[in-house]
Amino acid sequence: MRLLGRSLVEEFGQQPLTLTLLISHTHWDHIQGLPFFAPLYDARCRLRILGGEGARKGLLAALTGQMESTYFPVPFSKLPSNIEIEELREFNFAVGSTLVRAHRANHPGVCVGYRLLSPDGLVCFFPDAEPRTGGADREMIDFIRDADVLILDSQYSLAEYRKHTGWGHGCVEDSVALALEAGVHRLVLFHHDPNHDDRMIDSFVRHARALVKKRGGKLKVDAAREGMTLRLNHRRAP
Ligand SMILES: [Zn+2]
Ligand SMILES: [Zn+2]
Predict the structure, then answer these.
(1) 198-214 and 172-181 helices cross at what angle (nearest 10)?
(2) Looking at the CA of 25, which ligand is closest?
């Protein structure tokens, strides 16, 4: 969020920003960047934050609570930008030319994944998800079908997953099976475990590619990294 804020400010210069931010859920690792998002401090910025409905005390309380004086020097109420926080009731809407759909992910609490269909391609984003029945989660397969890019929670190796089943995170085997079944073009392994170093992540990627090869698939697999750029050039009818 910090780097994104900075790059938006650089890209648009003096132009006022009108932004929509989609939040999957309010666990720490997914909201802590928000107070460091530069556009929040620009009075001309209009920001609409959307997230899953029904998070325990509500989305507003979760996002503003982390900016109370115990945790952060600038309270939410003192931010100069114009911010609207809305819980998703409609799971099918448009943001500019991008059609957005949301799907409940299997993860503790309320957590959604997004399907973003733009004129340039289809991106599915499931930062935290443990696919039901492993790689054979029918609802999820239908939701992500034919995605150009699927960014998916693949935190564990199979051995680690067996010790953490039900914790709400997936493993490389299930991610590959799910992506192959759904005809996804490119899988980006995400939600890296803080205990995994670069060598471990590289071995996950090699293992995932070997699984694809064994199944005769064409799926491309990479690991997500900070600052990574994914270019869509798959023009299709929205
Ligand atoms: Zn989470
Ligand atoms: Zn997480």
Answers:
(1) 40
(2) 1
